[in-house]
Amino acid sequence: MPNISKMYFMTAICFLIAGILVGLKMSIAHDYAAVGAHAHINLLGWVTMSIFGAFHALNPRGAETRLAKVQYYVYTGGVLVMTPALYLLLTGNPSLEPVVAVSSLIVFAGVLMFAAIIFRARTA
Ligand code: HEM
C-alpha cells in the first residue's frame, strides 16, 4: 500500500473516533446542536479520506506524485480546521463563522485537487 494511503487511513480513523465521540456526547446530553459537526467529521473525515486512501491504493503510480502529497496536506488541513470550528460555531460561538467559511474553501480546493488526480489517472 502506498504511504499516502496509509496516511489517509490513519487520519480517517482518528476522525471516525472524534465523530463517534461527538455523537455519543450528543446522545448522552440529549443536545443535538452539534449534529452538523458530527456529520461533517464523519463524512469529510472518515468516509471521504478512506475513499481517497483506497483510490491511491488502487492507483499506486499516481500516489507517488507531489500533487498527491500536497493534496493530502491541503484537504486534511482544511478538515482539521473546519470541523472543530464548525462544532464551536454550532454550540454557541458565532464569531467562528469566517474560520468555517475560509476552511470550507480550503477543503473544496483539496477536493478539486483530488479531481485532478482522478482525471490524470484516467488518461495515464
Ligand atoms: C457510535 C457512532 C455514532 C453515534 C453515537 C452517532 C450519533 C448521532 C446522533 C445522536 C445524531 C443526531 C440525531 C438527530 O438529530 O436526531 C446523529 C446524526 C447523524 N449522524 Fe451519527 N452517530 C454515529 C456514527 C455516525 C457515522 C459513522 C456517520 C457517517 C459515516 C454518521 C453520520 C450522521 C449524519 C449524516 C447525521 C445527521 C442525520 C440527519 O440530520 O438526518 N454518524 N448521529
From TrEMBL:
Keyword Nucleotide-binding included in the entry's annotation: no
Gene3D superfamilies (UniProt xref): Cytochrome c oxidase-like, subunit I domain
SUPFAM superfamilies: Cytochrome c oxidase subunit I-like
Record's keyword terms, sorted: Membrane, Transmembrane, Transmembrane helix
Transmembrane segments: 39-58, 70-90, 96-119
Cross-referenced InterPro entries: Cyt_c_oxase-like_su1_sf
Full protein name: Cbb3-type cytochrome c oxidase subunit I
UniProt organism field: Mesorhizobium shangrilense
